[in-house]
Amino acid sequence: MSASPPSSPDHPGPERVRRLRHGSGALRLQVALFLLVSLAALWSFTLYALDRREQLDTASAEVEMRALAQAYAENSLSTIKRIDLILLDLAHTWTLRPAEFQAEISRHQQDLDDVALQVAVADRDGLMVYSSIQRPLERVSLADREHFKVHQQGQASRLFISKPVLGRVSGKWSLQFTRPLLRDGRFDGIIIISVPPELFSRFYDTLSMGRQGVVLMVRDSAEIMARAPDWRAYMGRSLPTAPYLAPGAPPQGNFQRVALLDGVPRLYGYRKLPQYQLTFVAALPQDEILAGFQRQRQATFATITAMSLLLVAMGWLILRSVRARDRAERALRDANRELSLAGSVFRHTMDAVMVTEMDGTIVSVNPAFTAITGYEAAEVVGHTPRLLRSGRHDADFYRAMFAQLGSTGHWRGEIWNRRKDGQSYLEWISISLVRDERAKPLRYVSVSNDVTELRAGDEHLRHLAFHDPLTGLPNRALLLDRIGQGISVAQRDGRGMGVMFIDLDRFKPINDTLGHDVGDQLLQQVAQRLSHAVRHSDTVARIGGDEFVILLEQVDDGITYVNLAEKVLSSLSRPMVLGPHTLEVGASIGIASYPGDGEEAASLLKHADAAMYVSKASGRGAYHFYHPGMTAPSARREPPATS
Fold it and tell me: From residue 469, how far is each of 344, 481, 541 by CA, in Å?
């Protein structure tokens, strides 16, 4: 029997061949695991980041659309109230003092020039007996008009707003604002103010909504009352399937749909005014909203696909080289080269990667980890991730994390950690358990990214939801919340509080003549002067257009309202220098106090608004305290007693 030849480097013996095969199999498994973990971490974080970005862009657009719809509603509400006050005055004069009716028309001429095409009166039979249009009055019957029938049948004893009609006298499209005329409690006709639909479309001109953004005013019976842009093309059309017209629809919200009228997919925000059976809508095309996201997604997918192909190619090369059992030494060298390439990916990836033993001891970190945390590799290797803890999470948080790692082998979520310089940061982290070829737990690999700025974007969105974007002042939503809190404090402490409704007197001519840029600068300077005029405990808010509200808390005597009102009037009467323009405005102020003028935020604002209109009607540049029944100018009251 011949002896077996001795083993040599060129002719390895059976034991060495077995070790090489075993080593190759283990290496293949490790490479496959590394490849799977890397691809899973890479794609998981990429998909999360893209999904998060899309959600943030959509959420930001939803907030913006709701805010625009709210602003549109508030802007229109102010106009509706102004028209209704004129209607009330005219109806009262026609019924009780018909000889003074034309004088009453003249007294309101400035406001009518702003909003009305025509003022008309129809008798109980529907025949028009008065028209402000300057031509011989024709015998026109309105008996078949919707607004006449509604009042004649006693269905609307209050303000009624008709669907758009083509006027028989004016020959123009208009919205009919009407109230009934009652004599001895009986129907005696109607009084009408014809308003051009474009009056409620001008809000669009103050916005920048791209090529296909729209605003709509829609009646609960589905008729389009106003639209911008191109309102004339939509008069007489309706939207019977609009979501906000469905029974039980919330007063404010968002939805997405393909527009029925022009076929453009849009994201909508709406705000309902149920007291007037109107809904105000603002919308932007979805492709414009997500244009930036779509570009980022394409670029990201291209980059991640290239990186994934690189990782797959790397793994394939390693596996191919280790299969060559007859060239084991060369296969090991090839494997080392491929692992070096993997190390290069490890070093150059933008995500922080940390590898630990099963007991948590850090084995290695990449340069991105150093860039994010400030710790060099030598400072953390041999330590545990506890040195990064910020102290913002309690023991239960970490117990739940390790429990999930133990049961599923992975965990992902947001964690507040601390950099080397002591600064806290928020990171999105994915932790995976790596096992060996026998499924024995081997290492933990974490991939993380700093998302502090992303979260800061969320905070910015919340700020936009409760503040006026032009002046930075609290908006109506935040004001109502603070009034509610102020009422609770006043009830508890037994001290007074109230609201001061401020409307600028000459803002519209300035805005129309010099442009919206000058108008915006003027509103910003008014906001600054109001903020400087109030106490630290007071709140200044802008609730729409040129309307501001001051919330006064901890008021011990009525003279506080007087002092602040005179201070505000004095401040706003001083000239305002805006570039080459020196402008003079003024203000009309209405004051309502708690609890005498209302025990809820809405009633306080409503009564202060009514008092403000009395100030404006009495000559402007004045202030009035609210008293019951206030709908017309009256003498200035003495300040109320301490609440």
Answer: 47, 18, 12
Q: 409 in a domain, yes or no?
A: yes
**452-466 and 476-493 are packed helices; what angle lies between their axes, rounded to 10 degrees?**
70
User: Are 258 and 355 found together in one domain?
Assistant: no
CA distances from 401 to 63, 257, 369, 396 (A): 34, 41, 21, 9
How many contiguous H segments (helices) and E segments (strands) does the chain have?
A: 16, 23
Q: Give residue for tokens 């492709």.
A: 287
Give the count of beta carbons closer than 10 Å to the beta carbon of residue 300.
15
Mean pLDDT of the chain: 84
Q: What is the DSSP string of 223-280?
A: BEEEEESSGGGGTT-B-TT-GGGSTT--SEEEEEEE-TTT--EEEEEEEEEGGGTEEE
Query: Per the domain annotation, does 576 fall within a domain?
Result: yes
Confidence label for 291 from pLDDT (cuts 50, 70 and 90): confident
CB atoms within 10 A of CB 474: 21
Element (H, E) at 60: helix 14-96
Query: Quick one: 50 and 68 in the same domain?
Result: yes
Amino acid at position 459, single letter: E
Tell whether 488 is covered by a domain.
Answer: yes
Choose the weakest-confidence range: 344-348, 427-431, 510-514.
Answer: 344-348
Average pLDDT value for residue range 534-539: 91
Domain shared by 366 and 339, yes or no: no
Answer yes or no: do 380 and 261 share one domain: no
The answer to whether position 28 is within a domain reads: yes
Residue 639 clears pLDDT 60, i.e. is over it: no
Q: Please say which residue of 294, 321, 348 terminates a domain.
A: 348
Q: Say how many domains are in the chain.
A: 3
pTM across the whole model:
0.45
Give the type of residue at 288.
E
- Does residue 564 carry a pLDDT above 50? yes
Q: Please give the structure tokens belonging to residue 20.
A: 């090489």
Q: What is the pLDDT of residues 377-425, one digit of tens each?
A: 899 999 999 889 888 888 888 898 889 888 888 899 889 999 988 888 8
CA angle 74, 640, 549 (to 5 degrees): 20
Among positive and negative, which fits the CA dihedral 477, 479, 480, 482?
positive
Q: Which of 121, 190, 118, 120 is nearest to 150 (CA)?
A: 190
- Predicted pLDDT at 340: 62
- The span from the CA of 543 to the CA of 462, in Å, is 17
- Same domain for 444 and 546, yes or no, is no
